Amino acid sequence: LTLTLTLTLTLTLTLTLTPALPLPLTLTLTPGYAQFENDSTKVQPHTMDFDYNGKMWIGLELPGVMIQLDVDALSKKEQVDGEGYTLITKEDLVSVCIVNLAAAGVPGGWLKTRPHAFCFGFVDEGQKSSDYIWFTGKLTNTVGRVRIVDSKCGKHKAGELEHFMLPTLGAVPIYLMLGPDLGPDRPQDVWGTCVANNNVFRVTTRERDGLPVGHVTEIPITPKAASRKPIAIKPAPPINGKHMPYMWFSCEAGHSVARIDINEVQDLVEAKRKAQESGELPARDDGRCMCSKSLYSAGTFNKAVLEFDVPMTQPNMKLAGLAFDKDGNMWTQSCD
Fold first, then answer.
1. Residues 171-185 as b or e (16 or more Cβ within 10 Å = b)
2. Model confidence over 258-271: pLDDT tens digits?
3. Considering only 90-104, 112-126, 306-320, which range has the smallest mean pLDDT?
4. Which site in 117, 187, 274, 280 is 20 to 30 Å from 101, CA atoms measured?
5. Contact at 8 Å (CB) between 252 and 246?
6. CA–CA separation, 316 vs 309, rounded Å?
């Protein structure tokens, strides 16, 4: 069975109900749903993924919304006039999570974050899925997380939302991904790319080493004069079943791929903290790693980042995505 879903709907279309179809599931709405319900902006679906339980989630960038769809119900719906696609309506929504910033003085009271990409958080011991979706706020210079299930203790509810500012204004966080599982003493952080300021960032997902949840560290990947425009980012594939302490990302402008060493980043963060404690650096934590520009001549801006050029078939090519096959080989895609 081949099912093609065409997400050409607008937000007003999600209000179009088909009386003959009963609502299959209870619709979980988060605070701010009214802004989604009454918004006529086109939704611009951008990122789609399945959570650890196989549930489909789609990020709608323009309105700032994450939706969960009832895939089983969609697979049974009739195609539109035999055209090969199925329209998604309100009956197909299981959850609607609003991920915008509440802001006084803004029309409607909300500032749209433009979530360009999202990923699921770590899975706690004894759980089958993650409690959170993490996302980039491309328009608001933030990274955030939204709770997608109620906590077992009842203290936290689905829809609870947190935003964390990036240290550099105008960074334009774009993609993000959960890092590798390196053991109980090495929590899985979320890693992302900033397309405008030539940085990769790390976000803590648990409290540790004196850092709160949501602490953002930016790591410059090259000197400012050598912009790379980092885009996609993924953890390194396991080798012989062992997770490796690396994240790989693609560089659109440099037509290259680069590897960032998670251990080296932690060492840089710790070295900076010690320098602040000793008074060598100001005590205020600005969230930036200390890096040595002298190492760039060796093909790397700092010991944490190693860059590799990808051959081009024509000079105007831009490198976009990357993926790993079952043997651990990296594949990239480029466009002109």
1. bbbbbbbbbbebeee
2. 999 999 888 878 87
3. 90-104
4. 187
5. no
6. 14
**Six token digits for residue 80:** 């539109």
pLDDT of residue 9 exceeding 50: no
Closest by CA to 99, choosing from 19, 46, 35, 28, is 35
State the pairing for strand pair 132-137/115-120.
antiparallel
Distance from C-alpha of 255 to C-alpha of 206, rounded to nearest angstrom: 34
Tokens of 314: 């024509």
CB count within 10 Å of CB 292 equals 11
Confidence band for 203, pLDDT divided at 50, 70 and 90? very high
pLDDT value, residue 85: 74
One-letter amino acid at 228 equals R
3 state SS of 202: strand
CB count within 10 Å of CB 271 equals 13
pLDDT at residue 34 is higher than 80: no
CA-wise closest residue to 163 among 154, 173, 153, 155? 173
